[in-house]
Fold each of these.
Amino acid sequence: MEIASSANCDLLIVGGEGDLALRKLYPALYALWRGDALCEQVRIVALARKSPDREGFLALVKERFDTYNPSGAADPEPWSQFIEHLHYYPADATSAEALTGLQEHFGNAERGLVVYLATPPHIFAPVCRALEGAGLVRPSTRIVVEKPLGSNLESFRDINRELTSIFTEEQVYRIDHYLGKETVQNLLALRFANSVIEPLWNNRYVDNVQITVAENIGVSGRWNFYEEAGAMRDMLQNHLLQLLSLAAMEPPAHLSAEDVRNEKVKVLSCLRPMTDEAVRNNTVIGQYTAGAVKGEAVVGYMEEEGAEKTSHTETFVAVKAEIDNWRWAGVPFYLRTGKRLQHRLAEIVVEFKQVPHSIFGPLLQSDSGNRMVIRLQPDEIISLELMNKQAGLEMALPLQQVSLDLTFPEENERAAPDAYQRLLLDVIRENPTLFVRADEVEAAWRWVDGIRAAWERIGMRPKNYSAGSWGPSESIALVARDGRSWYEA
Ligand code: BG6
């Protein structure tokens, strides 16, 4: 498939030797470059200070690329052409004086400039001021930031105030990498390009919606970071609520960034705030203890490297959310996410109501409703579960559940780009549809802050769960109380 060639645009990666840049950004840029999606003269400049010189920097990039690239080491010929575009600029990113030398790379104001802040948020403000002082903030400059965007509504507003004192909202691209995943975009196609689905997508036909993002990894050596965040702020506030907003939003008038984001923010603003009592009943938090994942023994959260003696940080959270609007009144949205769960899985499951009257009597069991499964990972699947008759001559009609597979054709799957490829290209093409607007982040924080404050007030503490399980048993009970169960393929 041909990708529309991108505009004349250069990139500056601040934090150019950090984990995000090495694991995600250079591989994505390399793939874009190989697909002719970057302009021929593109300059990609890494701003960092660890490597002594460009050779050292390039060796580090290559070493990490070869380690993490799913299809193995880079081909030597295209790689050597790619790195001709990759430059190293060792400097203090917070010093305007130090950054003035970047004019040598980005002096041509005609060309666009994408600045990716792959750094901790506490230096966003000084870096932006330094960029401004160095003359790099122009109308065509775009700034890309990624979570954690604050730890609550107030700290998000502080970060945002700093950013928008230098850049306009249109210049700020807030990444949530889940929005770059192929199936997430397919959800839009599924909902709004098919006339058979949208009429069923409401409280008349939908019984409940389940959103699961399960990981089997632990905190991956980031105990200190994770201890401050927890599953609610690390995953649910952003990735799960973004999935929820896309699954639940009204049809936008157009596929324009503003129309799509206007509809998403409306959903987030309709999330019902929870009283202390509701939080007690409708939320579950857990922390993993030692167990086994994929047949291997793993330690508990408190035994992870860098762990301290006591911690009340949740590594698992499940929430029953309700959306107070016409479409979704009365339909629970069950959300759950956690580390060290049984396996890696991200999916949205829409469970439809039972038929109003069964002419099949007990042959149509209570768990035989229709279901749409939209799986993002590990595999990308969209399937619709329907009932049909088993072949045979029996007098009664024996029923069975079958899956109608709407999965991408194989060649399409092979072409599915990594989320960062799609998102970087969208910044270059100045298409903010898949980026999160400030008011969406605010609405998500407002709802999450309310729940977290209630946890504090009622002294809610995480329940233990064994690594390799599906979280604390209370999470099963959360759904079972409503006469439902978590979907298991
Ligand atoms: C990040 C979280 O945003 O998403 C990590 O900070 C998590 O803790 C990661 O592991 C999961 O992303 P993915 O794409 O691997 O599901």
Note: The chain has two domains: 9-146, 179-416+440-480.
Amino acid sequence: MIKKIRKAVFPVGGLGTRFLPATKAMPKEMLPVVDKPLIQYAVEEAREAGIEHFIFVTGHGKTAIEDHFDANPNLEKLLMNDGKWQLLEFLRNSTLESGKISYTRQSEPKGLGHAVWCARDLIGDEPFAVLLPDDIFHCKTACLKQLVDAYNEVGGNVVAINDVPLEQTNRYGVLSVEKDDGRLIKANGMVEKPDPSAAPSTCAISGRYVLSPEVLKELDNQKAGVKGEIQLTDAMAATLDRVPFHGVRFEGRRFDCGNKIGFLMANIEYALDRDDLKDEFKASLQEFIKTL
Ligand code: G1P
């Protein structure tokens, strides 16, 4: 039986050293793309996919994330008094309902698999989603929704897939492909950050997952992999004998906002998609490009 995906895990414990000094006193997940923090893109995507409970795995210096998703009655009152209804709506959209949001801590930086494992009691014995907020996906249908739709067809573990240049396989988890129909890829193996010379394909796992609770059982073993970290990819691979595994070539565009170029490109793409900004921004960009 296919169980509904109700819960999503957001690993937000990472330090964000690549964005120093911006992230000296601010979580990297709060960096804004246009005017919305990265983490809110992931939360809104999860909502669109039908997620009901939001689980954050945090660490030191991340309390701004908790405040961000909490109500702010003083600010609401102020906006109401000033008749700023649209801003009020934005504010309310960024508030998650009490009881529908949980926080737990990853007390040691032991890798992505470990971060997900830290949420095991909050997840319980049911399938769940994982969203890595560094990756944002500009899609007509939310990327996680595309994964959930595929999961409803095939069950098991389902991940988002990007085709990457061969020389980049050492940045990703990479699938060994059994069958590929263009949208759905059935995998019979996977490896974390393989050297291009050893990569089984160029189908790279992007930061969205729908996972069976069997993966949590594998994470209980706490086995370290590449870079001495507990890898989510290894735990998923260890369930291949009993859980079907599929990748989805999602429709849309992924931005790796964990790196500066990806982050800057995301700002351009999302600004050009905004009715209130696109005309003026496009004209300014076109003028600017002439000067290059
Ligand atoms: C993590 C995963 C990797 C995945 C990537 C996607 O790596 O371990 O399998 O391909 O996210 O962004 P990280 O980027 O944390 O090194």
Note: The mean pLDDT is 95.
